[in-house]
Design a protein that fits this description.
The radius of gyration is 15 Å and the shape is globular. The longest helix has 18 residues, at 144-161. The protein has a six-stranded parallel sheet with strand order 1-6-5-2-3-4, with helices on both faces. The protein has helices spanning 19-24, 48-60, 72-82, 96-106, 120-130, 144-161; strands spanning 9-11, 29-32, 63-67, 87-88, 113-117, 133-137. The chain is built from six helices and six strands, in the order E-H-E-H-E-H-E-H-E-H-E-H.
């Protein structure tokens, strides 16, 4: 069970992810968490940098969706500001049904899907339990030092578990 908390990939943030590598592996659906992953919690300011990232990912051939345990009051403004057309609020991550709903609604197999998030329980454990690629990113809600410590521990755990 501990191995289900260990992500397939670890990055400092969403901007440092090797999206070319994911595309080469056959990933076509990117599921992004909102709070702490693409925006600081309780922050509704979508940056041009985030919009540009999503535009470039779409051009590369990815489909993007947002999956959040927050409600529609959080999801809808982010969808509108990023021009993302699909998202699920009140998802109840890490329940498998949250991830299943996304893949079924967007017609993607598990093999072509990746979850990107900053929460080891809701995002990584949920993705691993469902059987999709899991990508952990440092939380926008933590300090640089806290993220470095988290990433160091996770990288050591990955080596120990052989992942």
């Amino acid at each position: 069970m501990l191995k289900d908390f260990i992500p397939d990939h670890i990055y400092d943030d969403i901007y440092s992810i090797d999206y070319d590598k994911l595309y080469t592996k056959g990933i076509r659906l990117l599921i992004f968490d909102i709070d702490g992953t693409i925006l600081k919690s309780l922050n509704f300011s979508v940056t041009d940098k985030l919009v540009d990232l999503f535009v470039s990912l779409k051009i590369m051939g990815f489909t993007i969706t947002l999956l959040t345990n927050a409600g529609n009051l959080r999801l809808d403004p982010v969808l509108a500001k990023t021009n993302i057309t699909h998202g699920i609020a009140s998802a109840k991550k890490p329940n498998k049904s949250a991830f299943e709903k996304v893949t079924e609604q967007l017609y993607f197999s598990k093999e072509k899907t990746a979850m990107i998030g900053n929460d080891l329980y809701a995002d990584i454990f949920g993705a691993n339990q469902f059987g999709i690629t899991s990508i952990f990113v440092g939380s926008l809600d933590l300090s640089i030092m806290e993220n470095k410590i988290n990433n160091f521990i996770l990288k050591k755990a990955r080596k120990f578990k052989g992942k």
